[in-house]
């Protein structure tokens, strides 16, 4: 029985479409009432705006304004920007004029609260503290004991000044002495110092020698200041009351090793236009002195130091030293203090 059913299934599947088709054909052959005929509408042309957004436009906020096109630009200014309106012109775009410049405002806002007289006093006080104050200083760059071959001695070099940023009165002194023999050579200078710029000063004044030989008085002029790379330099000319012309050049440099340890090389050169036998000075290059000192700044105002100093006389100055029984070259260790207040 099951075998018969299985064999009959293909036949049933083929017969089903045929039955459906027969039913459809039977229905289509039935008489149906025809609908009333209507006249065909006249053909219409395609709308050229079909598919466009036909939403009504919003009201124009500029409606009623003069929308006339701008004047045609000149044929010679193709691509050039339109000139700025006269009200917006600045700088060199402004037309030339002959009106005087506006007056400088010299009043202070604080005058409205404290009064012009009180503020004028305050301003004068401020200017005085920021450039017009009178200052003073005393500094001893060298104050040392010299240990030489059987001729120990001491040496000093210092100055004191009083004044302002531009003009100062300067008093300097330097010299050396040998133990048991007193001062060999010393001098005092009184100078007026005038600032040429922030780094250099012009100095002029007088010098008085204090030594074992004949005393000399000099007129002096020179410059001193701070050269590039922080070299302190000094150059002076001296004209004595006897007509002797001398020159001196000095320089030193502070090489800071730490914040407190400073190494200072120092050089001094003396020249003369003529021989001065009574002072042991020869014409030309007379003396060169060089030293190296290492100081420790316990405070900026106080620093002990140790070092080595060398001095050599040349030319006639060396000859005068030999005639006097002195050494042409001297050298030795030094120890001293540097201080200022």
UniProtKB/TrEMBL annotation:
What's the domain of life for this entry?
Bacteria
Q: Name one GO molecular function term.
A: copper ion binding
Q: Which ranges of the sequence are coiled-coil?
A: none
InterPro entries membership: Cu-R_B_prcur
Q: How is this protein named in the record?
A: Copper resistance B
GO process annotations (BP): intracellular copper ion homeostasis
Disordered: region residues: 25-104
Which Pfam family, any one of them, does this sequence belong to? CopB
Record organism: Rhizorhabdus wittichii (strain DSM 6014 / CCUG 31198 / JCM 15750 / NBRC 105917 / EY 4224 / RW1)
- From start to end residue, where is composition biased (Low complexity)? 85-97
Which residues belong to the signal peptide in this entry? 1-20
Assigned GO CC terms: cell outer membrane
């Amino acid at each position: 029985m099951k075998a018969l059913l299985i064999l009959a299934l293909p036949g049933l599947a083929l017969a089903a479409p045929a039955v459906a088709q027969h039913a459809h054909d039977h229905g289509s052959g039935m008489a149906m009432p025809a609908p009333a005929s209507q006249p065909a509408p006249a053909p219409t042309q395609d709308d050229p705006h079909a598919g466009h957004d036909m939403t009504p436009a919003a009201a124009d906020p500029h409606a009623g304004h003069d929308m006339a096109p701008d004047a045609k630009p000149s044929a010679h200014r193709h691509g050039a920007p339109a000139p700025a309106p006269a009200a917006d012109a600045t700088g060199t775009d402004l037309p030339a004029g002959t009106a005087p410049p506006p007056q400088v405002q010299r009043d202070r806002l604080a005058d409205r609260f404290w009064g012009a007289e009180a503020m004028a006093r305050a301003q004068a006080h401020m200017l005085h503290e920021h450039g017009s104050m009178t200052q003073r200083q005393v500094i001893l760059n060298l104050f040392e004991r010299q240990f030489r071959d059987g001729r120990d001695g001491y040496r000093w070099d210092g100055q004191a000044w009083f004044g302002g940023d531009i003009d100062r009165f300067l008093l300097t002194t330097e010299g050396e002495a040998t133990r048991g023999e007193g001062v060999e050579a010393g001098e005092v200078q009184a100078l007026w110092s005038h600032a040429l710029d922030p780094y250099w000063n012009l100095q002029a004044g007088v010098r008085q020698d204090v030594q074992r030989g004949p005393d000399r008085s000099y007129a002096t002029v020179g410059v001193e200041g701070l050269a590039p790379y922080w070299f302190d330099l000094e150059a002076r000319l001296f004209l004595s009351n006897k007509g002797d012309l001398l020159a001196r050049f000095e320089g030193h440099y502070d090489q800071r090793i730490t914040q407190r340890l400073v190494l200072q090389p120092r050089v001094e050169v003396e020249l003369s236009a003529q021989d001065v036998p009574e002072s042991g000075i020869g014409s030309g290059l007379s003396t060169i002195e060089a030293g190296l000192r290492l100081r420790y700044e316990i405070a900026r105002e106080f620093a002990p130091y140790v070092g080595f100093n060398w001095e050599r006389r040349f030319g006639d100055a060396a000859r005068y030293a030999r005639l006097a029984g002195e050494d042409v070259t001297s050298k030795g260790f030094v120890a001293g203090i540097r201080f200022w207040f």
